[in-house]
Amino acid sequence: MPLSEDIKKVLVIGSGPIVIGQAAEFDYSGTQACEALKEEGVEVVLINSNPATIMTDKEIANKIYLEPLTVEFVEKVIAKERPDSLLAGMGGQTGLNLAVELYDKGILEKYNVKVIGTSIESIKEGEDRELFRNMMNRINQPVIQSEIITDMESGKTFASKIGYPVIVRPAYTLGGTGGGIANNEEELEQILALGFQLSTIGQVLLEKSVKGWKEIEYEVIRDSFGNCIVVCNMENIDPVGIHTGDSIVVAPSQTLSDKEYQMLRSASIDIINAIGIEGGCNVQFALDPHSFEYAVIEINPRVSRSSALASKATGYPIAKVAAKIALGYGLDEIKNAITQRTYACFEPSLDYVVIKIPKWPFDKFQGADRALGTKMMATGEVMSIGSNFEAALLKGIRSLEIGKYSLEHKKFRELSMKELKEKVITPDDERIFALAEMLRRDYKINKVAEITEVDKFFIEKFKSIVEEEQRLRFSRIGDLDKEWLYKLKKKGFSDKGIADMLRVSPEDVYKLRIIWGIIPVYKMVDTCGGEFEALSPYYYSTYETEDEVEVSDKKKVIVIGSGPIRIGQGIEFDYASVHCIIALKKLGIETIIINNNPETVSTDFNISDKLYFEPLTEEDVLNIIEKEKPNGVILQFGGQTAIKLAEFLKEKNIPTLGTTADQIDIAEDREKFDELLEKLKISRPKGKGIWSVEEGLEEAKRLGFPVLVRPSYVIGGQGMEITHDEKELIYYLSNAFQKDKKNPILIDKYLMGREIEVDAISDGEDVLIPGIMEHLERAGVHSGDSITIYPSQNICPNIKEKILEFTKKIALGIGIKGMINIQFIEFKGELYVIEVNPRASRTVPYISKVSNVPIVDIATKVMLGEKLRDLGYGVDIYKEPELVSVKVPVFSTQKLPRVEVSLGPEMKSTGEVLGVGKTIYEALYKGFVAANMFISKTESTILATINDHDKEEFLPIAKELYNLGFKFVATSKTARLLRNAGIEVKEVRKLNEEHPNIIDVIKNGEVDLVVNTPTKGNDSKRDGFHIRRAAIERNIGVITALDTLKAMENVKIKGIDHEELDVFDLAN
Amino acid sequence: MKAKLILEKGTTFQGNAFGYLKDSIGEVVFNTGMTGYQEALTDPSYYGQIVTMTYPLIGNCGINLEDMESKSPKVKGIIVREKCSLSSNFRSELEIEDYLKQNKIIGLEGIDTRALTKILRNNGTMKGIITLEDVSYEEVKNKIEAFSNREAIQRVTTKEKYVIEGSGKHVAIMDFGMKQSIIRSFLNRKCKVTVFPASTNAEEVLNANPDLVFLSSGPGNPEDLTDIIENIKKIVGKKPIVGICLGHQLLALSLGGKTAKLKFGHRGCNHPVKDLEANKVYITSQNHGYHVNMMPENMKVTHINLNDGTIEGMKHNSLPIFSVQFHPEACPGPRDSDYIFDKFMEYAL
């Protein structure tokens, strides 16, 4: 059936800010869906609060609303735009929940909007535990038996019914503690007792244990005519018990015979038929490794992280096909985008192995509890493609950017076998390295498989890598012969990995490869195992005979992507990479992208002329460059991942477009940069290196407190802190020197001023500043974590003049051609520079959207030699828009046990939302609402614990809030302060005092907001840390910067409410 | 041990031999199934063929005694990118290389199977040799060209007629190299089956008075099987006839249709077939090098292949005759079209 006639205008709901568990994959699927809809002549109205996405570009949708993803605001958009249909399954769980809510509240009916794709009834059937379980029982599909238990007796009864062992999961525990596996009634009694106590609502979920079973996923598609296909199946290397988002996953399954494969395939199809899916669906199974017994874990009746992975693993565009199905097409009517000759109604056949490895944020969160479990903690992932398992795995490992090029991890060498065993039994992000170390010491393969419950097949593969590593370790480079090196390369060993083992440089191995002619060939990802001629320009490297890439002699440019999503380098960089490609394409230049992130738009093979799905290491990138011989390589849009390659490419005489490696070095090298600023007579807070606590104290005395301290060897905010007095400074310094005696600590005067940020483009003669952004929180909060306002509200004209002057001086002084990002502090009427990044920054997408300046497009043209003056957007500071936009950061700290919550110089946020309004207050309101941190109740209770430095500043804010109707709860000191000021306050006991104390107040939900200004971050032993964690885990907002609280108070005073607010279409 | 594959036009791939180390000649084909190597190895339809697996890792689950489609592997050889010597699956009983060695079949690993697949795709299936000797194409050219698979059916059909009792309909199976899963599919429907050798004459089959005659799958070119075609003609109109794969092609020829060789065949688990009557698409298991390219009179197409539009099923306008080109018995491959056996049963008297 062709396009349904009555679908003319479709509302697509995005997934909102990037948080753990909901990342860039929904930008990829949403963008694909919007394009598929537009292709059919359907008008697309998009709502998403996340400004860093490509889907919110005017090229992608017809109408774009960067508005909060709440029923109220979506209704406003519906009322204004009157779409006839809603496509629900593209915006992750957020989009799905919102669609259900709109339906349940009768809003869809009110505006006559019909849901296309999977119906709301079907969504509910897939999502609601009870409905789903009933359905599975009806169609004879086994599910994991579980029940919510509130008392010991019924727990014991249920456990004996389903049989031991059982998993105990307390609901809402602090820190995810208290669960466990009970092997018998005695153990159950113990764990349950603790579980009831720990659960804030006295509730525990009892579940039949399938721990150690294989976790297998199927990505399925069904059309409205009942045609079903399986796009891909995937096997989690980590067994059931570790969230699939935290598991290493391989596609297709490796240890399933046809019988098991088809058994689960048939089950998936039976399930989606019964539920009535119309579009994509993910089905997860637990499979007993010793029998045909299996159980359905859950389904996701929408596109998902797994569907994005499956799309990239197979070349099958799931979201696009799902969108077409929603419009009424049958699978047999949709063309296969890769072959252009066959139809979407077939099942991809892979002739390679795909591995996904999660990227965890533990490098940023040193104190975090790294143990993996049923709650996902990874912020992103890498995917790798190889001709064999080992190659895919090693490519994946080096794509992670954790400095690992083999399975060897030095830190595990120190551990005893017993310690290693402990490590692999309680898995964390580094388990694979611990496991490899055990194998290196000849621990039995069968036993490793037994204690880790990782299939022996995979252990054997790890072992074969370790054996080669050991052989290398006991060899010299002279022992390498052509055959051995070829074998190593075939198995995915990197030059660096080999060189490290042989104690030579990668260059030495590279030279041997060139002499022996061992260079990779590139194979195509074509969905069909080579059966049909394919047109997909999607490649991966392997060491085989035939190369399938046709190298053109056209003018071409390689764009280096930004790799996995991590804190500090998120989806914004994919946005910039994609826009750079689009700009190059428009100029008629052949575009090639290299990237390894399966979640992103940039790795959709439709975006560039060629996609190389490869690690972003020196060797892997060089191989492609040597093959393609591009006219230039662009590094500015791929974040630090790409910038890191600058020096290497320079050594290899490979032209980079725009800013050169030497120029990048000026900005990145502290000394050179200081020299430049000195020359330009631009002031910056001068850091001084100190080597001892005493020296630090002396310096601090000279500078005057507060002082900013940080390790000298890190870029960005890692390990940075503000200390307010001698005690804090001594604490910080003694800790820091204990950890690392070899490097100095840098100490700066902390300027408690206004932080200002610009993204600018320079062509070497002029600069264009699309917008000056003002940070709401004063300096000291990482720019990625502060609320950013554009256009700036409090910067006077002469400071703006100065900003332009400084930007020009720095950009021209360095010799920037392309993007530059500069952060300033305005302190007592003076402007200081605090940081310069010679590349696109996090704020580029948002500023592009609200200023209407296509920043990446202009920067790309400038990099190719065009002049700003000819590009139509003028030079200097671009005119300010009428609407005010506020970027509000969004955090995932709730999902990371034992991670500090309070804001500081280290970045912690994973995503951001935008609030757009006619005034700053409207924008702030929307931003707070979109970030889900606004306190809308009128009589809310605030728990306040304020440190001594902030008390004076806190009092007037508290007074205002009190006058607005807020109530206060506080511990003795803060309570006294408030009481003295005439504010009624309920006093609670401190953390270490008897119950009920401050933690109980939080646990019992007696407060709506916690305002806690920390004495010192990163110290998990302190009360404040526990208070903040308790609140965040109980879903209670935490504000740690008084500037944020003040802003919220101002919005409250203005009495802004969603009722009177407009929604704005940013595309027109 | 080093070995190479030499194709009939001279293309050579260098790899390593495993299994039974003896040269072997056959028709080189490729199979795109990601699972089911054991079923493929033992499927008699592959008799005379050297099968290239496009999925790179083969042997991961070993070999078990339950999933055999016939008593022994029928291929002339198997070509893989990488064989697994340390299988892992709860039912694994033998490693693939040992199984091949015991059954005197050579394997070739370590070649660029994708490059080979593309050659077969672009030039059509070709004869070839897996050889352990360091010979040139010229030296083996004649050997390769002399290879013929005309006798295939005699090698794979049952030697003796046999009966498996059942309480339901009586199905007479003409065994041209049948897969065990086909029998299982009938037995699951409580059928009594009588399996006849391929050369059994029509009278003997009719004398058994079956409710349904089933023409099985099997290897080779249907046009070579003139005696069998004549036999089938004698059954037409007397008993309901259904068939799969080669049986389907033989039925077409018996009724006056034509068959032809496909360039590189359909071998895999992912072929979309549209049931024109139900207007629904099923993903099917396929394994054939020939197809019906001209329909007999009075027959209509019931199924088509969505990839290339070839005929995948047909039925007679008035007589109880129905056949499909794909493999509804699956094994390997999707079980989505199991309903075809129910349809077969509707034809039974």
Automatic annotation (TrEMBL), chain B:
<dbReference type="GO" id="GO:0005524">
    <property type="term" value="F:ATP binding"/>
</dbReference>
<keyword id="KW-0315">Glutamine amidotransferase</keyword>
<keyword id="KW-0547">Nucleotide-binding</keyword>
<feature type="binding site">
    <location>
        <position position="290"/>
    </location>
    <ligand>
        <name>L-glutamine</name>
    </ligand>
</feature>
<keyword id="KW-0067">ATP-binding</keyword>
<dbReference type="GO" id="GO:0004088">
    <property type="term" value="F:carbamoyl-phosphate synthase (glutamine-hydrolyzing) activity"/>
</dbReference>
<feature type="active site" description="Nucleophile">
    <location>
        <position position="245"/>
    </location>
</feature>
<feature type="binding site">
    <location>
        <position position="249"/>
    </location>
    <ligand>
        <name>L-glutamine</name>
    </ligand>
</feature>
<dbReference type="GO" id="GO:0006526">
    <property type="term" value="P:L-arginine biosynthetic process"/>
</dbReference>
<comment type="pathway">
    <text>Amino-acid biosynthesis; L-arginine biosynthesis; carbamoyl phosphate from bicarbonate: step 1/1.</text>
</comment>
<feature type="region of interest" description="CPSase">
    <location>
        <begin position="1"/>
        <end position="169"/>
    </location>
</feature>
<feature type="active site">
    <location>
        <position position="329"/>
    </location>
</feature>
<dbReference type="InterPro" id="IPR036480">
    <property type="entry name" value="CarbP_synth_ssu_N_sf"/>
</dbReference>
<comment type="subunit">
    <text>Composed of two chains; the small (or glutamine) chain promotes the hydrolysis of glutamine to ammonia, which is used by the large (or ammonia) chain to synthesize carbamoyl phosphate. Tetramer of heterodimers (alpha,beta)4.</text>
</comment>
<dbReference type="GO" id="GO:0006207">
    <property type="term" value="P:'de novo' pyrimidine nucleobase biosynthetic process"/>
</dbReference>
<feature type="binding site">
    <location>
        <position position="45"/>
    </location>
    <ligand>
        <name>L-glutamine</name>
    </ligand>
</feature>
<dbReference type="InterPro" id="IPR017926">
    <property type="entry name" value="GATASE"/>
</dbReference>
<dbReference type="InterPro" id="IPR050472">
    <property type="entry name" value="Anth_synth/Amidotransfase"/>
</dbReference>
<feature type="active site">
    <location>
        <position position="327"/>
    </location>
</feature>
<dbReference type="InterPro" id="IPR002474">
    <property type="entry name" value="CarbamoylP_synth_ssu_N"/>
</dbReference>
<comment type="pathway">
    <text>Pyrimidine metabolism; UMP biosynthesis via de novo pathway; (S)-dihydroorotate from bicarbonate: step 1/3.</text>
</comment>
<keyword id="KW-0055">Arginine biosynthesis</keyword>
<feature type="domain" description="Carbamoyl-phosphate synthase small subunit N-terminal">
    <location>
        <begin position="1"/>
        <end position="131"/>
    </location>
</feature>
<keyword id="KW-0436">Ligase</keyword>
<keyword id="KW-0665">Pyrimidine biosynthesis</keyword>
<dbReference type="Pfam" id="PF00117">
    <property type="entry name" value="GATase"/>
</dbReference>
<feature type="binding site">
    <location>
        <position position="246"/>
    </location>
    <ligand>
        <name>L-glutamine</name>
    </ligand>
</feature>
<keyword id="KW-0028">Amino-acid biosynthesis</keyword>
<feature type="binding site">
    <location>
        <position position="218"/>
    </location>
    <ligand>
        <name>L-glutamine</name>
    </ligand>
</feature>
<dbReference type="GO" id="GO:0006541">
    <property type="term" value="P:glutamine metabolic process"/>
</dbReference>
<dbReference type="GO" id="GO:0044205">
    <property type="term" value="P:'de novo' UMP biosynthetic process"/>
</dbReference>
<dbReference type="InterPro" id="IPR029062">
    <property type="entry name" value="Class_I_gatase-like"/>
</dbReference>
<feature type="binding site">
    <location>
        <position position="220"/>
    </location>
    <ligand>
        <name>L-glutamine</name>
    </ligand>
</feature>
<feature type="binding site">
    <location>
        <position position="287"/>
    </location>
    <ligand>
        <name>L-glutamine</name>
    </ligand>
</feature>
<protein>
    <recommendedName>
        <fullName>Carbamoyl phosphate synthase small chain</fullName>
        <ecNumber>6.3.5.5</ecNumber>
    </recommendedName>
</protein>
<dbReference type="Pfam" id="PF00988">
    <property type="entry name" value="CPSase_sm_chain"/>
</dbReference>
<comment type="function">
    <text>Small subunit of the glutamine-dependent carbamoyl phosphate synthetase (CPSase). CPSase catalyzes the formation of carbamoyl phosphate from the ammonia moiety of glutamine, carbonate, and phosphate donated by ATP, constituting the first step of 2 biosynthetic pathways, one leading to arginine and/or urea and the other to pyrimidine nucleotides. The small subunit (glutamine amidotransferase) binds and cleaves glutamine to supply the large subunit with the substrate ammonia.</text>
</comment>
<comment type="similarity">
    <text>Belongs to the CarA family.</text>
</comment>
<dbReference type="InterPro" id="IPR035686">
    <property type="entry name" value="CPSase_GATase1"/>
</dbReference>
<feature type="binding site">
    <location>
        <position position="289"/>
    </location>
    <ligand>
        <name>L-glutamine</name>
    </ligand>
</feature>
<dbReference type="InterPro" id="IPR006274">
    <property type="entry name" value="CarbamoylP_synth_ssu"/>
</dbReference>
